[in-house]
Amino acid sequence: MDRAHLDLKPSGPLRGALRVPGDKSVTHRGLMLLALAEGEGRLLYPLKAGDTLSTARVLGALGAEIAEEGPHFRVRGQGLRLKEPGDVLDCGNAGTLMRLILGILAGQEGLFAVLTGDHSLRRRPMGRVVEPLRAMGAQVDGREGGKRAPLAVRGASLRGIRYTLPVPSAQVKSALLLAGLFAEGVTEVEEPVLTRDHTERLFRHFGLPLGVEGTRIRTRRADPFPARDLVVPGDFSSAAFFLVAALITPGSEVVVEGVGLNPTRTGLLQVLASMGADLEWRVLEGEAGEPVGYIRARYSPLKGVSVDPALIPLMVDEVPILAAAAAWAEGETFIPNLSELRVKESDRVAAIAHNLRALGVEVEEGPDWLRIRGGGVRPGEVEPFHDHRIAMAFAVAGLPVGVRVWEPGWAEISYPGFFRDLLGLCGGS
């Protein structure tokens, strides 16, 4: 049977303004904290896509009442005590869900739950969360001694720990902070470098215990807390695809409105600016501690750069679309510090290299780096490797010359309607 594919014709200029769907990271975390709150609150303009709908289903199985209300979610929480699920909890493809919910379930004394996911998620490393949770007193088991899902959790009495992350990971940090809400004493997490801080901002929004000193974050056992409405900004990671599409397509000018401009997420803007991108952005407002504004991108001849390794944790989800920009830049782009991309939804380093070669771009792949010799791409076929960001990034990379995207439906994981919005800016090409 033939696999599904989408043929994109060579695009003319992209023109116009759009709003991208709600931030995936904030939607996951907002749903979880509303499920732990007392009373009813609304999550306004969330992302409703494969990963976040998995989070809503899992929290529903744990007793939260979650209803769709137009573009919003209305959530009635269970307080800090969740209900034992009657069946296995299926996390789908959502690594954020599996890692963060482990932190919550670990502190639900006596509650038993089993977590699984799709083939991709069952291959992804969970030991980095399980190990420090066990140090807090959590009872977790699973494949390879708890390094891979399925995972079985029995909630226990937790104690706070001081833990230094061996590698930068907002998901591990967040799981430990969530577990710390149920632990005796102080839970302190130290990061080697700053990572996205949505969890910390949401703790402040809901009045949860939090102390931050540089890269050290502390919390402690929480008292019951009331639900509050939460507005979700547009997802910067989703906006990035349209920014790069405009930068590489002659005559283009695109504005993304209402997008989150959290500085722990926008490292890509710094890199693109250093490549010569004509970009303008401004913070106009803030919701729940998250800065929100607009970004304007105009077609720009780009040049290759060597990316600062310290910026990668601030743009880890944008590396595929950065590679697309590098393919069109004159000269060589070197992207280091990519070990985390080996254990994403796909091996993103290998997936990026494969698709660049499929589009005629010369690329070298190291254990944790990529060297891309740009100058443009040729028409070709790109393979998503079951990864939403790879599908979208290489659709953009091939857009100026025409490209066939195999299994484009993977984009639905984080951006339902992505290809509709992209073609809309191209005038339906």
Description:
The chain has 429 residues and is α/β, with parallel strands linked by helices. The chain is 31% helix and 26% strand. The strands form seven sheets. It has a four-stranded mixed sheet with strand order 2-17-19-18. Strands 4-5-3-16 form a four-stranded mixed sheet, covered by helices on one side. The longest helix has 13 residues. The chain starts with a strand and ends with a helix.
Mean pLDDT comes to 96
> In angstroms, what is the radius of gyration?
21 Å
What is the SS-derived class? alpha/beta
| Amino- and carboxy-terminal Cα gap | 27 Å
Share in helix: 25-40%
Quickly count the helices.
Answer: 13
Low-confidence stretches: none
SSE diagram, text form:
Layout: E1 5-8, E2 15-18, H1 24-36, E3 40-44, H2 50-61, E4 65-69, E5 72-76, E6 89-90, H3 95-106, E7 112-116, H4 119-123, H5 127-135, E8 139-143, E9 148-154, E10 158-159, E11 162-164, H6 170-180, E12 183-184, E13 186-190, H7 198-205, E14 211-213, E15 216-220, E16 230-231, H8 236-248, E17 253-260, H9 267-274, E18 278-287, E19 290-298, H10 319-328, E20 332-335, H11 348-358, E21 362-365, E22 370-373, E23 380-382, H12 388-398, E24 403-406, H13 418-425
Parallel strand pairs: 2-17, 3-16, 6-7, 10-12, 11-13, 23-24
Antiparallel strand pairs: 1-24, 3-5, 4-5, 7-9, 8-9, 13-15, 14-15, 17-19, 18-19, 20-22, 21-22
Helix pairs in contact: 1-2, 1-3, 1-7, 3-6, 5-6, 8-10, 8-12, 10-11, 10-12
